[in-house]
Amino acid sequence: MSLAAPPRPAAPPPPARPSPGSRFTATLLRWWRRLTAMRTAIVLLFLLALAAVPGSLLPQRSLSQGAVTEYFAEHPTLAPVLDRLYLFDVFSSPWFAAVYLLLFVSLVGCVLPRAVEHARALRSAPPPAPRRLSRLPDSAELPTALPPAAALDAVEEELRVRRFRVVRRGGANGPELSAEKGLLKEAGNLLFHLSLVGVLLGLAAGKLWGHEGSILVTEGQGFCNSFQQYDTYSSGALVDSGDLTPLCVDLEAFEAEYEPDLTASAFTADITYGAPGEEGRSTTIGVNDPLRVAGDRVYLTGHGFSPVFSVTLPDGTEFTDVSAPFLPSDQTTMASQGALKLPDLGPGRDGQLALEGFFAPTGLVQGGVLTSIDPRPLAPRVAIVAYEGYLGLDSGIPQSVYSLDASQIDSGRLTDVGRANLSVGEALTLPDGTEITFTGVREFAALQYSSDPGQGWVLAAAVALVVGLLGMLLVRRERFFARASAGPDGAGSVLAVALLTRGSGDAGPRLAELTADLTAALSGASGRPAAAHRAPSPDGSAPRPEDASRDT
Amino acid sequence: MTPDPSLAALSDTLFSVSVAVYSLAVVAFCAQLAFGRRPARELVAAGGAPAPRTGADDISSDVRSPDAPADVPADGTAGEPGAARRWGLLALALTVLGAVGHAGVLVARGLAADRLPWGNMYEFATAVVLVGVAVYVVLAVRTPGLRHIGLFVLAPVVVAMVLVGLFLYADAGPLVAALRSSWLAVHVSTAILGFGIFFVSGIASGLYLLRSRPEEPRPGSLVSRLPGAAALDRVAHRTAVFGFPIWTFAVIAGAIWAESAWGRFWGWDPKETWAFIAWVVYAAYLHARTTAGWRGRPAAWVNLVGLGVMVFNLLYVNLVSTGLHSYGGVS
Predict the structure, then answer these.
(1) Closest-CA distance of chain A to residue B273, Å
(2) Could A299 and B263 be called an inter-chain contact, meaning their C-beta atoms sit closer than 8 Å?
(3) Of A369, B226, B238, B267, which is the most buried if we count CB atoms within 10 A?
(4) Residue B202: partners with Cβ closer than 8 Å, 6 or more residues away
(5) Domain boundaries in chain A?
């Protein structure tokens, strides 16, 4: 059996002559009560769960822009419709926000009155005992040799030892006692729900004032925290690019370690960092181990290889040490793909050169096809296709730095002029005499700079949430009532007792346990002199019988 | 380091052994239900139209299952419930024995690879099932009346183990770099605990739905031998109440780990999204159970949806979708 939930504040009585204004208020109130009802909250919880589902089944821009582009290519008619419904940005869509904001309004509307109610309950005495205790589902009668007042004294002492708040009243049906404990349960409940609001506010703060940038950095190079330098970045609406933490990071060395079965065991990057122009401090970051500085973080999120080439034109012009990062397409073998664009080789548009290809850190050529068999750069090889023509870089349409624009190839503006599988030191000679030599390989690291001023608040709210949840679920809220009446034979008395618990169904065994202890206490007390019964209350804050009896 | 092949083989052998022992436990639970009869108290509590009683000692013949095995002695008023109880104890003992072997699977795995034995989907799912069995054993020891749900726990356990062994198996091996963090012990362990507890909770709610159907179960039918609807509902709720903070903690620990591993504490990665959905559904269940109009069967359905979400999160998200939680190790 559980106690009834605290009553909601009653609706104001309807006015005698309902004016349009008051009718409007009444309608508003009715809607407010409907919104803050538990039933609505459950429906909203379901809507929230349901609303999150498409966010995991459809590609999301926030996770992978590439996957969304691919989806558009595969479903050219469906994708624009889904896009109009924000189904590729579910978690920032207006309808998702509508669901969780309604849920939070409902939550606050439900929790705040309960908090007020709880504050009142904390200050007021436990309620008077019901008239007929035997009608409560878990009740018992205890005969004792003590007179009624002394018997209640013994019960009160036993209850106070058990940390009950106790009040004695002289009710119409005889002296009675009400006791209560476990108010922390409701406090935990309120803390839990309010912490959820805290989590939401922290998340919102992070979205508004946070920023994030990613960049590929080759060994020996570095970057500074500014939006112009990042390959990709996102920033909150209230971030001013001038407010970014001035920090520069240089990648000194990158190292990947592997187990004998080629499972990657560690990735580490030795970096130096510091404000621009300042002498940098050295540190090592790795997977699960970011650099934390000035409230921001720098992560090592990936790595890869940049094959290095030298290009000698027929006229003898030499470009040495040209390279571009190739993105790993398979993390277990580090087989990578990429493109190297050389737009400024010669005079005019037709002189542009590009390489597109496949890189294997440990290459194996079988039947003319290059595959990678080891993620470590033991025998690097590239399979490249050389193109000449117009790259379309200045056409105004942005293109990926990791691949060539396929439309330029399709339209014939870029033509395939040669292909080869090369290991380090080997060269491909094009029909016009241009020589492309694969000279070596450098490792790059993918670094990410993150700033989220809200995450500390989210963590604090999450800790409070767990504490509240534990209080709510572990603390037992109990009310105990006892009423003493004279014994049937005139000597001693009979105690009628009852126990109510909230949030657990086992009041019966609890009462049995309590009455056993009370019986022991009563028989113990009856052996002592009567003067000893009136022990001073250990808790002076509880109202004494005299003042409490007024409100019965 | 290279995994120890003999320990890895021992782990695989123990897996087969525990599946076999669990199967024997299923047989014993079946025997318990076949030889058992509803206690008189349940007959009254069911509140339907109990057969008219001729005398207190005669109740058993009134509820004798029409399809009871023929070899049961006709006068088995004393012997038959005893037999059922013995079968029940045997089934429980087999379950415990199977669970010991099952725990051995994980211990041997952990020793073989010298790491925590939940680094891939096979080990994760094996551990979840073990937690489910352990929760059932604790319930059955504390509340003997709940032993009767053993068949309905152990049968899904055997099916789950066979499927895990067939489709999720991955060789013992070292952890990938991303999993080498002390948060593995915190986040994954609590996720396993929460999942295992929700597994038993979902089964209890499913049985509650069977038991609380408006039409009275046929006397002697399997459903009539289940614990009462109220007891099943209480078990479902208590286990969910126990599992919910653990699951909450697992999600929060995952967020803390994600902050140091992936650069953000929450990014709506498919696994995160489904963990969130499961959390919301279980929150809805806990609210539903105390809300007028949702109590009883609707709330039990919500709990089953929650279990469905958990299973979906394990299978679909790891095997089908691509996300950061791709540690399945299933090729």
Answers:
(1) 6
(2) yes
(3) B226
(4) B236, B303, B304, B306, B307, B310
(5) 36-121, 125-182+476-551, 211-451
Spatial contact of B266 and B254, defined as CB atoms under 8 Å apart: no
* Identity of the residue numbered A127: P
Q: What is the pLDDT of residues A2-18, one digit of tens each?
A: 444 555 555 555 556 67
B295 contacts chain A (CB < 8 A): no
Q: What is the DSSP letter of A435?
A: E
- A387: which residues sit within 8 A by CB, 6+ positions away? A353, A354, A355, A356, A404, A409, A414, A415, A416, A417
pLDDT digits (tens, 9 = 90+) for A138-154: 888 888 888 888 888 88
At the fourth CATH level, the homologous superfamily of domain A125-182+476-551 is: Sirohaem synthase, central domain (3.30.160.110)
pLDDT, tens digit, 9 for 90 and up, residues A345-392: 765 445 788 889 899 999 888 888 888 988 888 999 999 999 888 887
Please, where are the H alpha helices in chain B?
5-35, 40-45, 59-62, 79-113, 121-142, 150-163, 183, 189-211, 229-261, 270-288, 297-319
B270/A212 touch (CB, cutoff 8 Å), yes or no: no
Terminal-residue alpha carbon distance, chain B: 22
Full DSSP string of B217-256: PPTTSTGGGSPPHHHHHHHHHHHHHHHHHHHHHHHHHHHH
Please tell me what DSSP assigns to residue B188. Answer: I
How do strand A139-144 and strand A427-429 relate by DSSP bridges? unpaired
Backbone angles phi, psi at A372, to 5 degrees: -105, 135
- What ipTM goes with this model? 0.82
Q: Which residues does chain B have within 8 Å of residue A53's beta carbon, measured at their own beta carbons? A: 273, 277
Task: Give A458's contacts in chain B (Cβ within 8 Å).
Answer: 265
Structure tokens at A536: 């001073």
- Please name the member of B1, B176, B291 whose beta carbon is closest to the beta carbon of A38: B291
